[in-house]
Amino acid sequence: MGRRTSTFWFQHDAKTGHFFGITPFITAPTGQYDHNAALSVGEHRWKFELQAGYITPVVTPRLKLMLAAGVTFFTRNNDYGPARQSLAQDPLGETQEWLTYDLTPKLQLRAGSFQYFGGAQSLDDIKLNVSHTATVNFKVGLSYAVAPGWNLLALYGRDTEVQNGFREAYRLNFRIYKAF
């Protein structure tokens, strides 16, 4: 699935450390989709997501609170499964809360939680009984600035509550990213 985005900054004050932005995501159905396969790379539908995020220092400029909330809207997949049914999905909500602490100008410690909720599904306009999701997970990690704009990120996390989904006993992520 192709995904393109750009953040619109309504507050971007590096001097005070206050930031507020809204990011729209559009995910196009570009992956391979096979309605007969139990698992496909593509979903055969569009997704439209809107996220808002706020960052502010807490007590000291080295300790920051990051808050984010988002909602994802889905178009129908009218070719779902071997019977080629119509799959619809209600909006899926998400919230995130993070505390970060700058140990050094290049090394940052972080801890946060994620919550996902909603997203009930229906086939041919008949609601599935256990289709909505409710997930809570926690993560801790470190990020390191290896060069201006380039960061390494390591996160460890686990789900603490899962309703109608797969429970992750643990998650370990490593990421290299470029901040623009």
TrEMBL record:
Protein name per Swiss-Prot or TrEMBL: Transporter
Domain of life of the native organism: Bacteria
Taxonomic source organism: Endobacter medicaginis
InterPro entries with a match to the protein in the record: FApF (IPR025737)
One Pfam family cited in the UniProt record for this chain: Phenol_MetA_deg
